[in-house]
Design brief:
Layout lengths: L1 H8 L2 H15 L4 H22 L7 H26 L5 H22 L2 H9 L6 H14 L20 H4 L3 H13 L5 E5 L6 H10 L1 H6 L4 E5 L6 H12 L8 E5 L4 H8 L6 E6 L9 E3 L5 H13 L10 H11 L3 H10 L5 H12 L6 H12 L7 H9 L9 E2 H12 L3 H13 L4 E3 L15 E3 L2 H11 L9 E3 L9 H5 L9 E6 L17 E6 L3 E3 L12 E6 L6 E3 L12 E5 L18 E5 L23 E5 L18 E5 L19 E3 L21 E3 L21 E3 L20 E4 L1 H11 L6 E4 L12
Parallel strand pairs: 1-4, 1-5, 2-3, 3-4, 9-10, 10-11, 11-13, 12-14, 13-15, 15-16, 16-17, 17-18, 18-19, 19-20, 20-21, 21-22, 22-23
Antiparallel strand pairs: 6-8, 7-8
Helix pairs in contact: 2-3, 2-4, 3-5, 3-6, 4-5, 9-10, 14-15, 14-16, 15-17, 16-18, 20-21
Length: 788
């Protein structure tokens, strides 16, 4: 098996294609041959990659056949290099052109031999009806003489035995997909979805051979590989042949490796009346009939890696079991990563394993095989993304591994970095989630236009994060668009210090350290930086002095992952942050605002999470709007020392105010009516809040009020009905004893969320406001705020 893997390790088809394109563009005498070879190689590349990433043990006979083919491709690669080295036209070009013609004939002869078809059938553990394929392929060959692509031509299948590696972790997926199929018997489209390398194809193959599935469809199961560049002519031909066999019964068509909804729709139009199982990195079927592949559990992951590395389900004695566990942990249950690393570590000494662990911890590829077979394979998932969405995916490498990312922080980075609006950023999140490139940790109110994004989190698999780091780090450190620390370190990377004699081009900078003192920092020139993310774990932290030179900084995120709020030092650097628009502070002491505090004139958004506010908002001796003249969005969450908000209501520019999970705040100030632009007011989970000031009724733009879990609040102001613009109110788990009669005048009110206890009150209102939707909330308890 090692020799087979070695054949693919260099990804020779990709290298050859690049060289052929250069030959076609620069060497006129070889242009026609090179272009024909490009067509041939591109047609078979999806099939080659399917074989490459399968991890299946091929027979010696098939390995010998493939070895011969790849020797031909290697000769072609070396010949291209020779052609390109001949800078001027001479007789050598004629000689090389004749050689390329010979290679073209050899490659064409191999492709026309149908060998790749049979290799792919063996890879998929499919036994092919030879007579029928030969007849079908003859017909296809007569229709397409120029080239032939094989990935779609896998035909009807029969069961064969499995190697132990292929069976690890499949039981759960098989059971859940079968449950869907047997439960939704009237449904014609089912789905298997998951991130790249998660084992979707392996699961689909096992289902195609499963006795229960084959019994349901009376052995009429067709397995087709669609690929990123489908040959629809070939696919549709295979589907016609399969469905029009004279047997009138329901059949199963499995479409593997489907990349787009358009490809699926085109094929579904040919499969009417039969069941289709679509296997894709994207979520293309109804969520109710889609199985999202679950990654391997720790014991399953250990078994898979050990089977690949040691041919046993556990490390042999006396091999260092901790080293094995570290490798398993870095794979985070991803089958492809476990298989590739296990195979590359086979027969390697412990010292070699130690080096691999260190590279993995830095977010680097373990070796060339790991890079070409895992990162390259997963990078294909990004190729169909719009350029801006791809950039947003790469930005996610700026956040620490194994941590939930506040959706608000992520979308705000995208808004400021890529000049998009919040709605577009939110749509990017959904599209990346649909392609399994991130996971949304859903809140019951996820997607509500009023609640904002800071109640919602996203996560990303560590291997996807490593991919983002790998792509971002391909260029020299000073030229990188993202300057990112892959994991927590006591100091900044040495590579940065060695290159700090010239400016860095980074637009996103992410630092992840422990406690930092002034002497721990070295100077860095970051004139283009727009986003700075500081992650640390300590009780004291000196802000990096070079922030003062980041004249273009628009987003500053400071997150302390320690157990208690940290004291920050060096706030004087804010004097030069004239363009700062967004500030997120988490688990730190907020500096006291005074009349001498440096104004942040462009700051639009400020979020204080798990902070000690230290009376910062209790000031009445000066106008706080002089510090924040443009602030439109203020959120204070889980700040247990917040007592009063006297100074906030001088910030008349506020559009959204969120005071949540603050247990000691008793009341809002009387001058609330100053906030004439306020549209959203969230007072969620403030258990000691006993009343709302009557001035709330004077807010002319207020659209949304959230007083849920304010358990001491027993009444609304009598003139609450004056809020003619109010569209939604959330009052779940409140203790209201009644509603003021004026609520009948809430002409814009469309949505109320309440409990069973207050339902009857709002049903009376609905008689007057017939378009009102009343939603009875389910009990919901979340511990998402707890640090992982």
């Amino acid at each position: 098996m090692a020799s087979f893997i070695d054949l693919f390790a260099g990804d020779i088809t990709t290298q050859l294609l690049k060289l052929l394109v250069m030959v076609a563009n620069t060497v006129y005498s070889c242009k026609g041959i090179a272009e024909r070879l490009i067509t041939m190689i591109r047609d078979v590349q999806p099939t080659i990659k399917e074989i490459q990433y399968s991890g299946v043990e091929l027979s010696n006979h098939r390995q010998t056949q493939l070895r011969g083919f790849f020797e031909i491709l290697e000769k072609a690669r070396k010949l291209c290099e020779k052609v390109l080295r001949c800078r001027r036209w001479n007789l050598k070009h004629v000689y090389h052109a004749n050689k390329m013609k010979d290679l073209e004939k050899n490659i064409s002869r191999f492709l026309n031999s149908q060998i790749l078809l049979f290799v792919l059938a063996e890879v998929c553990h499919l036994r092919v009806n030879g007579d029928r394929i030969e007849r079908n392929m003859d017909r296809l060959l007569s229709e397409r003489n120029d080239s032939l692509s094989f990935p779609e031509t896998v035909m009807e299948i029969e069961t064969v035995s499995d190697p132990p590696i292929q069976m690890v972790g499949l039981d759960l997926g098989k059971r859940k997909v079968k449950e869907m199929m047997f439960k939704f018997t009237d449904t014609y489209l089912f789905g298997i979805s998951g991130m790249s390398g998660s084992g979707k194809t392996t699961l689909a193959i096992e289902l195609s051979r499963d006795d229960d599935v084959r019994g349901l469809f009376k052995n009429k199961v067709l397995f087709l590989i669609v690929s990123r560049s489908p040959n629809f002519e070939s696919l549709e031909f295979c589907i016609r042949e399969f469905l029009n066999d004279g047997v009138q019964q329901r059949k199963l068509v499995i479409l593997d490796d489907v990349w787009t909804r358009e490809s699926l729709d085109k094929l579904l139009s040919k499969i009417r009346g039969s069941t289709t199982l679509v296997v894709s990195r994207s979520k293309l079927a109804d969520p109710r009939t889609t199985y999202n592949v679950e990654l391997l559990k720790e014991d399953e992951a250990m078994s898979l890696l050990c089977l690949c590395a040691f041919d046993h389900k556990s490390p042999p004695s006396p091999f260092n079991k901790n080293l094995v566990k570290q490798v398993v942990d870095e794979c985070k249950g991803l089958p492809l990563s476990l298989k590739v690393l296990g195979a590359s570590l086979k027969n390697k000494p412990e010292r070699y394993w130690e080096g691999v662990v260190k590279r993995l911890l830095r977010g680097e590829a373990a070796d060339e095989t790991h890079e070409s077979r895992v990162f390259a394979h997963m990078e294909e998932s990004l190729e169909n993304l719009e350029p801006k969405i791809r950039e947003c995916f790469l930005d996610m490498g700026a956040f620490p591994e194994d941590k939930k990312i506040p959706l608000y922080v992520l979308t705000n980075v995208w808004v400021e970095r890529h000049d998009i609006d919040e709605e577009t950023a939110f749509s990017f999140v959904l599209r990346l989630a649909d392609k399994n490139l991130l996971t949304i940790v859903k809140n019951p109110r996820f997607g509500d236009m009023h609640i904002g994004y800071y109640d919602v989190f996203v996560t990303q698999h560590d291997v996807l994060r490593d991919l983002a780091l790998h792509i971002s780090n391909r260029v020299d450190v000073n030229r990188r668009e993202r300057l990112l620390m892959p994991k927590r370190e006591p100091t900044l990377p040495r590579e940065w210090e060695k290159n700090n004699d010239e400016p860095f081009d980074a637009k996103i900078v992410s630092l992840h350290t422990g406690e930092m003192h002034e002497m721990d920092w070295f100077d860095m020139d970051l004139p283009k930086a727009e986003v700075l993310i500081l992650n640390f774990s300590s009780d004291n932290y000196v802000l990096p002095p070079f922030i003062g030179k980041m004249s273009r900084l628009r987003v500053l995120v400071i997150i302390n992952n320690g157990m208690s709020p940290a004291r920050l030092h060096g706030f004087s650097i804010f004097a030069n942050l004239a363009k700062l628009r967004s500030l997120w502070l988490e688990r730190v002491h907020v500096p006291e605002f005074t009349s001498s505090t440096i104004p942040l004139k462009q700051l639009h958004k400020m979020h204080l999470i798990f902070c000690k506010v230290n009376n910062s908002f209790d000031q009445t001796s000066f106008d706080i709007s002089q510090i924040f003249p443009s602030l439109s969005d203020l959120a204070i969450d889980h700040c247990d020392d917040l007592l009063e908000l006297n100074s906030i209501f001088g910030i008349t520019s506020l559009n959204s105010l969120s005071i949540t999970n603050c247990p000691r705040i008793l009341e809002l100030p009387k001058n609330l009516s100053n906030l004439q632009s306020l549209e959203r007011l969230r007072l969620y989970a403030c258990p000691e809040l006993i009343s709302l000031p009557v001035e709330i009724c004077e807010l002319p733009c207020l659209k949304y009020v959230d007083i849920s879990q304010c358990i001491s609040l027993i009444s609304l102001p009598e003139k609450f009905g004056k809020l003619r613009t109010l569209e939604k109110i959330d009052m779940r788990e409140c203790s209201l004893l009644g509603l003021p009669s004026s609520v009948a005048a809430l002409v814009s009110l469309r949505h109320v969320i309440c409990d069973e206890e207050t339902l009857s009150m709002w049903e009376m209102v609905k008689k007057v406001v017939p378009e009102l939707c009343i939603e009875v909330a389910k009990k919901y308890v979340t511990l998402d705020w707890l640090d992982d």
